[in-house]
Amino acid sequence: MKKLLLIGFLLTMPTWASEITEDYFDIASNYCIQGNYTQAANYLDKILQLEPNNKNIQDLRNGLRQIIQGKNSSFIKSYAINKSITAKKSGDKQAELTALLGGNDYWAYYFTGVYYKENKDYNSAISYFVKSVNSKPTLTQCYLEIALCYFELKNWQQTLTYLNQYIKINPQDDLAYSLRAKTYMNMQNYDSALSDVLTASAMDNSAENRFLECKILYMSKKYSQALKKLLELEDELQTAEIYKYIGLCYARTGDLTNALMNLDKSIILFEDDKTVNDEYNSIKSRIENGT
Predict the structure, then answer these.
(1) Dist. CA 11–CA 156, nearest whole Å
(2) Is the pTM of this model over 0.90?
(3) Which of 54, 45, 44, 46 is nearest to 16 (CA)?
(4) Among 38, 151, 172, 263, which one is most buried in terms of CB atoms within 10 A?
(5) Is 204 buried (19+), middle (13-18) or exposed (0-12) by CB count in 10 A?
(6) Where would I find the beta strands (DSSP E) of the chain?
(7) How far apart are CA 39 and CA 51, in angstroms?
């Protein structure tokens, strides 16, 4: 599995949003090479605090968690994969894909799926993940990858189908419960969403899982409860999104001054959120008109 993780790192060389995240990735890579997967996972968590929607890093962290829990021990033996890694290092995306498509083993199918998923061709990715797990039924990571693709396609029912299948086999995977919580939240099934995110947090009390709980509470109209937990997270996650939800919670509980202040912070960090801008202008108008 060490060889698999090293290949995973090589195949997931992303474009970073900042030098800090790039440094964290390098440190995680070095720890992975040393076989210190716990520390590697810690640095991937640091990246996810800065880039919570980075699916590549989520997938790598999930793989590391499985190694730490002793779930995986298989090794990659695929000529197509080796050729694709060489092409990827040289920056030749077409040669990378051609090498993967030339393979006829389950690893070639799996990483072809990864390639398509990274390039947002989710339907093609699903097709190859299905081929991979059909060729190697014990490669259950494919079920999670398929669920992630369906999530991006906003096909919530199919997302649930594959997550349920994955969780049945891997009941200790916090990422799967977190993804299922997001899926239930999008389906407006807030009770199930809250149950799943609490399960995820019990396994990994990360800022990401706790923030998701706050969003679910907000969607459930439990504004005071959400606000209390958001304020506890503020020191860890000083992002546009957390200030957005703090501002919205203050607005829903009638504290317009604090609502305006936090929405302003959100706009400073990310000015293109229409929801935040509309809410900010509405509250500002209400304050100025005394309504």
Answers:
(1) 28
(2) no
(3) 54
(4) 263
(5) middle
(6) none
(7) 18
